[in-house]
Amino acid sequence: MNRWREHLPLLAALGVALVLPLLPFSEPTSKRLISVSGFVFIFVVLALGLNIVPGWTGLLDLGYVAFVAIGAYTVAILTRLPWMQFEGAWFLALLAAGAHAALWGTLRLGYAIFPAVGALTWGLLARQPWVHFPWDHAVWVALALANSAFWTWRLRWVFRTQLAGDYFAIVTFAFAQILLIFIQNCTPVTNAARGYSDFPAIRIGGHATGTGTLPPGTIVVLPDGKGSISAPDGGTLVFPRGGADWAPVPQVPLEVTADVKLWLRGLEWVNLPSGAAVIVPEAGYAYEPPGRAIEPDSKGFYYLLLAFVVVVFLAVERLHRSRLGRAWLAMKADEISAKANGISIPRHRMIAFAVSGFIGGLGGALQAWKIEIVTPGSYDFWVSVLILSCVVLGGMGSLRGVVIGTIALISLGEVLREGVELGPGLSSFFMNHARWLENIAWQPTGDHALLKVPDQARYLVFGAILVLVMIFRPQGLLPPRGARPPITPEEASRLRGVKTALFREESK
Amino acid sequence: MLALRNLSTGYGRLEVLHGISLEVREGEIVTLIGANGAGKSTTLNAICGLVRARAGSIELGGRDITRLPTNAIIRAGVAQSPEGRKLFSELTVLENLEMGAYLRSDSGAMAADFRRVFALFPILEERKHQAAGSLSGGEQQMCAIGRALMARPKLLLLDEPSLGLAPLVCQQIFEVIRGLNREGTTILLVEQCAHSALKLAHRAYVMETGTISLSGKACDLACDEKVKAAYLGE
Fold this sequence. Notes:
The complex is a heterodimer.
Chain A (H helix, E strand, L loop, with lengths): L1 H5 L1 H15 L8 H27 L7 H14 L10 H23 L1 H15 L8 H19 L2 H4 L4 H21 L1 H4 L11 E3 L5 E5 L3 E4 L6 E4 L3 E5 L14 E2 L4 E5 L3 E5 L4 E3 L6 E3 L3 E3 L4 H23 L1 H11 L1 H6 L4 H27 L9 H14 L4 H20 L1 E2 L2 H10 L8 E4 L2 E4 L3 H18 L16 H19 L1
Antiparallel strand pairs in A: 1-11, 2-5, 2-10, 3-4, 3-9, 5-7, 6-9, 7-8, 12-14, 13-14
Helix pairs in contact in A: 3-11, 3-14, 3-15, 3-16, 4-5, 4-9, 4-14, 5-14, 6-7, 12-14, 15-16, 15-18
Chain B lengths: L1 E10 L2 E11 L4 E6 L5 H9 L6 E6 L2 E2 L5 H6 L2 E4 L11 H8 L6 H14 L1 H5 L10 H13 L5 E5 L7 H16 L3 E6 L2 H7 L2 E6 L2 E7 H6 L1 H8 L2
Parallel strand pairs in B: 3-8, 3-9, 6-7, 7-8
Antiparallel strand pairs in B: 1-2, 1-4, 4-5, 9-10
């Protein structure tokens, strides 16, 4: 009996490992389920990354979303570059996203000042009428960089300061907020509020996007009489996902059926809306067929994400058992003692932030491919809170806990978004006794009630769940070995007794 | 081996050590005794670099270590078993010992050191997969000393190894300290229990409110009238 219980987690893990790869093949599975599982997988990756900092080094990170955003924007910007249109470029972009986020993970404590001062300088300069002249942007950049460098130098004591406890939480929070403001305002880099929406799909065995080379003299006629673009030097026509079929005949206008982009050599991207016509004066175009695209809702993407979950889980698990992981735990258990054993606290913290940032960037990049749009709106504070909630719910510091907590919370969120049709019993209960919750927790559909929580109210549900977990199981669903709740109710009452006794003693 | 010269340090605005000088020679057991708050633990922490010296210098084997970071000092051959043990209570005994050897990469010699620690404290081997927080006070103290030994120190700093232990366990710990010293480890021992410390040590320093008030051979100090009155309760 006892042995059976001991092996339960292993059996459960085996079961999950067997079921998950087969899920897309089971009969009643809808496309929707595959898609939702994708979101869950992405959040599992993100939560595994976040767990490193609060779970193992014991510092509260309230700005994890910054890494998600950095990863997403890195991928969005990189995959649009013309020289990133080669086979496997997506993987390179993914690694770059991770590395970029990791870099900021190590720097953010001190260097949160850097982008703040830089952006402020830029903002103030751009408002002045007297600074507009040719090459003014270059001057602004130089001044903004110089000013941030100056202030970074002046405030260099900040880098040496080891932030811990609440201060760390504040700085991480501030960093994420500053980054969000930067993203919202730095139009040339981040495209401001519009963000990036035309994502080239992940492509296996082919280019990131289909490309066709236009011969010199090509004229592109835009629809609805919006004029035309001529490409005297030729250009590269870049197709979005699936826009593989193009076969222009000289002199015959070819209609572009999907939105495509035209890269005018060395100049700029031009978006061609569908309906544009391409007129090629003579033969001489070339076209390379793209490889297989992995659509965000497809089984392929599902397996890709599953693979990332497995790889990240194994990597993090390996790290946890390594010397480094042990050092993190030691730092969390007793900082002074860890220091006295020769562990360099700042260095190990930096490594933790970097690893956590790398995984966050990776997750952010995957999420960008999944939702196919990157806008500042999707990287607000609440994403940090959501991921942190997943970690806390499952049990900080415990990998299986984090995975279980994330799966539970994110799927619950998706279910609430989607809505669940209730049976007649519950329906009549909601309709008769919970009228005041109509459109908050449920909606009427015919004679049934649909349990559905609107976006804004979903965090209320998460909050209620967290409060319940904190009351009944403060260490999380599956806490790490050796962890105990901060104080048990019995201990609390005993301590209260001791305190009263002491007090009586004193007052005598 | 270790020499403090006019060392002053403190926390925040409070100066705790007002220019103390002491010396530990190779192969010695030197004990530092004194009342609560005299600055004994601060002295050890200053040697480890956990508290920064404000004035004066610390030399280890002729090399100035005053400004070195803690990990460099540990690497130079100092290890501390801190007051109140400060074990990593959620880690197992074995993992705690591994943490002591954190800066070492010679796994062969490390295995020998594990055997040495387990030979000194057989109970630790029995409990090696147990969380350190679940050990008894005496076992925890053994684990803390074992952890410090895993760094293979030339100079071992022991801060109140007898704190809160039963007399019998105390005696056992003091035996181990004597044994370690015979094997060639130099020891600086901070102790409340002045009686046993003076019996064990070669030389002793008496600290009073951040200064060194007396020093000399341990057996001489044990006969000193003032020491007897103040610390030995005679």
